[in-house]
């Protein structure tokens, strides 16, 4: 009997996030309420692992983040990739917030995913392999049920499916 499998990972598409960044920057530059303010969106570092949002207040930071979220949604990307748990830094009449991108499943997250699958679908086998969860079954229907289950579960981190076999 053939075995089918796929991996559950937490990754983001760098090309799409690059497009989101460009579109958000264009909108920030053209918005009337941002004229004459320090409103700015920049990469966190050279590797593009996050965003640095600059504004004149927390309100403006949230407005810029809303623009980024809308652009993510229109490009079909999960908004959970943005880790907005940091605290804004206020200095020189500017408010700055560093927003790193979430990537990879740590041990706690992989255990959450495997426990959910084992509780709901005991016929499916799961294996934790580093920062991904390998799901294996003899039936493609079971694997599709797992995908629907994981998609329906509202995790606080982005989840995507890779490496179908």
Can I get a quick summary?
This protein is an alpha+beta fold and 165 residues long. The protein has helices at residues 14-30, 58-74, 107-120, 140-152; strands at 4-9, 40-43, 50-55, 89-91, 94-100, 125-129, 132-137, 160-162.
Describe this structure in words.
By secondary structure, the protein is α+β, with helices and mostly antiparallel strands. The chain has 2 domains: 4-11 and 104-162, 2-Layer Sandwich (Alpha-Beta Plaits), CATH 3.30.70.860; 14-100, YajQ-like, domain 2 (Alpha-Beta Plaits, 2-Layer Sandwich), CATH 3.30.70. It contains 4 helices and 8 strands. It has helices at residues 14-30, 58-74, 107-120, 140-152; strands spanning 4-9, 40-43, 50-55, 89-91, 94-100, 125-129, 132-137, 160-162. The protein has a 4-stranded antiparallel beta sheet with strand order 6-7-1-8, with helices on one face. A 4-stranded antiparallel beta sheet has the order 2-3-5-4. Strand 4 (89-91) and strand 5 (94-100) form a beta hairpin. The radius of gyration is 19 Å and the shape is elongated. The two termini are 14 Å apart. The model has no long low-confidence stretch (mean pLDDT 89).
**Morphology call:** elongated
Average of the residue pLDDT scores: 89
The H/E string reads EHEEHEEHEEHE
Q: What would you report as the Rg, rounded to the nearest angstrom?
A: 19 Å
The total count of strands amounts to 8
Proportion of strand residues: 15-25%
Biggest beta sheet summary:
4 strands, antiparallel
Q: Tell me the structural class.
A: alpha+beta
- If helices are DSSP runs of H or I spanning 4 or more residues, what is the number of helices? 4
Can you name the CATH architecture of the largest domain? 2-Layer Sandwich
* Unreliable stretches: none
Q: Determine the CATH topology of the largest domain.
A: Alpha-Beta Plaits
């Amino acid at each position: 009997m053939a075995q089918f499998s796929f991996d559950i990972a937490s990754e983001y598409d760098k090309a799409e996030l690059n497009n989101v960044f460009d579109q958000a920057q264009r909108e920030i530059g053209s918005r009337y309420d941002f004229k004459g303010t320090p409103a700015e969106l920049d990469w966190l570092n050279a590797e593009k692992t996050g965003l640095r949002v600059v504004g004149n207040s927390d309100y403006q930071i949230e407005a810029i983040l809303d623009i980024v979220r809308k652009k993510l949604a229109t490009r079909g990307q999960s908004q959970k990739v943005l880790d907005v748990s940091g605290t804004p830094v206020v200095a020189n009449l500017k408010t700055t917030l560093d927003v790193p991108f979430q990537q990879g499943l740590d041990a706690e997250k992989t255990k959450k995913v495997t426990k959910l699958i084992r509780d709901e679908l005991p016929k499916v086998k799961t294996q934790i392999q580093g920062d991904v969860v390998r799901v294996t079954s003899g039936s493609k229907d079971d694997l599709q049920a797992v995908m629907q289950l994981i998609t329906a579960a509202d995790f606080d981190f982005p989840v995507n499916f890779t490496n179908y076999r």
